[in-house]
Amino acid sequence: MSLRGFTRNIPPMEILTEEQVEAIHRATLDVMENTGIRFENERALAIFKDHGCIVDFNERRVRFPSALVEELLGRCPSSFSMRSRNPEHSVRIGGNTLYFSDMPGRGILDLHTWQIRKATRAEVREALTVLDALEHFHIICSYTPYFDVEGIAPAMAIPECCAASLRYSTKVMWTGYQNDCELFSIEMAKVTGQDMMGLGLPSAPLTYYSDACESTIRFAEAGFPINFASGCMMGGTSPMTIAGTLVSFDAEVIAGICLAQMVRPGAKVVVEDTVLPMNMRTGSPVFGSITAALHIAAFAQVWRRYRVPTFADSGWTNAKKIDYQDGYEKSMTTLVIALSGVNVANFYGGVYGELAFHPVQAVLDDDVAGMVGKFIEGASVNEDTLAEKVIEEVGPIPGHYLNTGHTRRYFDKEGYRPKSSDQLTYQEWETSGKKDALTLAEERVNEILDSHEAQPLPEDQDREIEKILEKARKHYGVK
Amino acid sequence: MGNVIEEIKNAVMSFDRNAVRRLTEKSLSEGADPVEIFDALKEVIGRVGDDFSKGILFLPHLVGAAEAMEGGMPLIMQEIKKRGSLVASPGTVLIGTVFGDIHSIGKTMVATLLAADGFTVKDLGINVPADRFVDAVKEGAVDVLAMSALLTTTAPEQLKVIASLKKRNLRAKVKVIVGGGAISQEFADEIGADGYGSTAPGAVVLVRRLLST
User: Could you tell me the end-to-end alpha-carbon distance of chain A, in angstroms, rounded to an integer?
Assistant: First the structure.
C-alpha cells in the first residue's frame, strides 16, 4: 500500500484553447531551434553534440532540432513511483493524482516577534516530525525545512538536512545540489534503499550552469527522478507576459529534460512551475501573486499535452506573518494548482519567500490541503448518492435526515473537517479560551511532538548515513 | 542649441538609447558644450529617480532611462576629457555576484543605476572568486566594492573577500557593501561590511552616503 494522495475526479481547469497550447508549443520549439540554450558544462555539450544537436562550443550554445525535441519528450514516463523505506509512504506521481510537498525557508519564524532566525538542530527534527505526522503531506524537500541551521556550515546544509529527513521521516524526498553535494544525497538514498528526486535548475534566461548539468547527469545515471524548475521572474529574467514566460520557461526545462533523456532513455522527470512576477518597485519577486497562479494554470495545460508530471509552488507568500494575507495568498494558489491538474504542490510550512518556515504554518496548510483535495475529488453520483430511496422514506416535514443510516454513512465522506480551524459556536468559543486558528495549530504541533515519532532508521543504516556525513564534512573541510 | 538638449532629454524620457546617441553625436559635432549635455542628462535622470521614489515610475522606466543615457555618456565623457574640462566623478564602484552564486539580475540592476548616477562601474559578472575581487581592488581606483549574493551558502565567500582585503592591506582603501535576497543588515554587520542595501535604488543612495562621509 502506498500514499494515494488525492485523486482529481473533476475535469482539469483549462484557460487556453487547444490552438493556444499548440502556438506555445511551436514557439518553444522555435526558441530551442533558433535561439538555443547556453550550457556551461563540457560534458553536457559533448552529449548534446553526440545526439544530434547543433553545438557552438565557443558560445556554449546548443540548438535543438524540433524533431529531436519531440522524440525525447516522448520518452518521458507519464507517471512513476517513488519508493520510501516505509512502503506505506511510497507514492506514484502523475496522472490525476495530487500530492503535497513543503516550501523550505532559510530560518525559523518567531511566532511572537515575527523575526526570522537560525533554526537549531532540535527544531529541524521537530519540523520533520510534524511533517511526517501530517495526514495530507507526502513529499519532503530536502534542503528542508531550514537551510540556515545553528552549528551547520553552509556547505553542509543539504547533506545534513538530507540525513535529518531520512532519519526523522519516512516520507519520500527530493534533494538539492551545489558543489557536488548531490553525490552524498544519492549515496544516502542507496543506503536506505529508497528513491530520491534530484534537481536540475536552469538559470533564466536560457542558461544552465555547470552544477545543474552535473546534477542532471548524476541523477539520471543513478536512475532517480529529476525535477526541472526554472525560477523565471516575469519582466526580469523572462518576458513580462504569461505566454512569453511560458515559452522561455518551457524551452529551458525541456532542454534539461533532453539532456536527461540522452543520458538515460526513459529517465523519470517532472517539471516545476516556480515562475514569479517581478515587483517593479523593488526588483524582488512578488510572492503569492495571482499572476503566478494564472501562469500555473497555463503551464499545467501545456504540460498535460506532453504527459509529463508537474509540480508547482504555492508555499510562499509576501506576508511576513502567519496572517490573513499569508492565508489567502497560499490558499488561492493551491486551489488553482489543484484545479489545473498539477500533480504536486510545494506548499507546506513556508511563509515569506523562501526565507521562513514554521511547523505551525505546516499544520494550518494541512487543513487547506485537506479542503482543496476534497474539492477535486468531486461529487460522486450513483444510485446510493442520488438518495431517491431515502428522500421517499423521509418525505416532507416532520421528516428529517439526521436519523437515517444514509446520513451516518456519508457525513464524514462528503465533507472535510479541518483540524485546527475554529469550528465552534460563539458560546463555545467564548468559554474555551477564545482561541483562533493560529493558537489551535500551535496546540496541534505540541500534540504531535508529544505523541509522534517516525519509524526509526535501522541502526546499521543510521551508522552508514553518519559515515557519509563524516565524508562530506571532510570533503568540504568543515566540522 | 537649447532645442537639441531638450530633444536629448526627451529621448531619455522615451527610453530611446539610439536617439540619445544620435542626438549627442549631432550636438557635439555642432560644437555643443559636453558639460552642458552632461548636466542636462543628470537633471533628467534625477527627475526619473524622484518619480520612481514617489511611485509614479517603476523599475522598467528607471532601467530604461538609465540605459538610454548610456547611449550618450561615453561620447560626452570622451569629449569632456579631450577638452580638459572637469566633471567631478562621484567615484568608481566594483561590482559582482560572489563565487558559488550565479544570480545576475539584481547585480545588473544596481550596476545600471549606479552608472546612470554618474559612477564609473566595473562589473565583474557572476560567480566571482574572492581573488578576482581583491586583485581588481589592488589594480586601483576603486572606491566601493559591491558584492551581490542571493544564497546564504555563499556567506563564507564574502568573509573570504573581506579577510583577503585585510591581509593584503587593502581594506581601508575601499568601502565594502553587500546586497541580495537573503542578505540582511545583521549579516552585513557579521561579516564586517560597511553597508547593506535591500533594493537597487537603495544601493545608489547607500554608495552616495558612504562616499560623502
Answer: 40
